[in-house]
Design brief:
By secondary structure, the chain is mainly alpha-helical. The protein is built from six helices and three strands, in the order αααααβαββ.
């Protein structure tokens, strides 16, 4: 743990975990106590251990990748017309976002995956791209062609904007008939 804490605190030496409480470990404990948890005794008593653990847990939370949130249980089969309680928070999110994102429809929060819920799910399942403010999708243009065209059109001082591409086929990585650019 002290070795990992050396990533955050320059005063702690990087240790090689070897299972031995040797001179380098003693030095790290004393430095930890001096800077973060006095008095300096070199002894890892219950309070020192708890202080090291608390600092380590805080660091791990800071460095950890964000946890994914699963909206639906792994066994869920959400189909048009189905009704499930776990659709309620998703529908509430759609309802809230419909006030600020052009393209999402307001929908009732009733747990039924109705036509509006299906369209919102398809819309939100699109793609986010960066492009110049005057960017547009051209009929029949592939995603690779769009990326090449918009990348070559950007100058060094031109601002880029985030666009949502609803109804983008993420599996095939291509636009569909309903795809369009919606500036965020």
């Amino acid at each position: 743990m002290l070795n990992r804490l050396s990533l955050r605190y320059d005063f702690l030496p990087a240790l090689v975990p070897d299972g031995v409480f040797g001179e380098r470990t003693l030095e790290a404990v004393m430095l930890f106590q001096r800077e973060l948890h006095p008095p300096v005794t070199g002894v890892v008593d219950r309070e020192t251990w708890q202080a090291i653990l608390d600092e380590w847990l805080d660091l791990e939370r800071e460095l950890a990748d964000p946890r994914q949130i699963r909206a639906f249980p792994p066994s869920a089969k959400v189909q048009a017309g189905s009704s499930h309680n776990y659709l309620l928070p998703v529908q509430a999110m759609f309802q809230s976002l419909s006030h600020v994102l052009d393209g999402l429809e307001p929908e009732s929060i009733d747990g039924i995956h109705d036509a509006a819920s299906v369209r919102n799910t398809q819309w939100l399942g699109g793609l986010i791209v960066l492009a110049a403010s005057d960017s547009e999708l051209r009929k029949g243009e592939t995603f690779q062609e769009f990326r090449a065209r918009t990348a070559s059109a950007v100058t060094g001082d031109q601002p880029l904007y985030a666009f949502h591409v609803p109804f983008f086929d993420l599996q095939k990585m291509e636009f569909t008939e309903r795809s369009r650019l919606v500036r965020l």
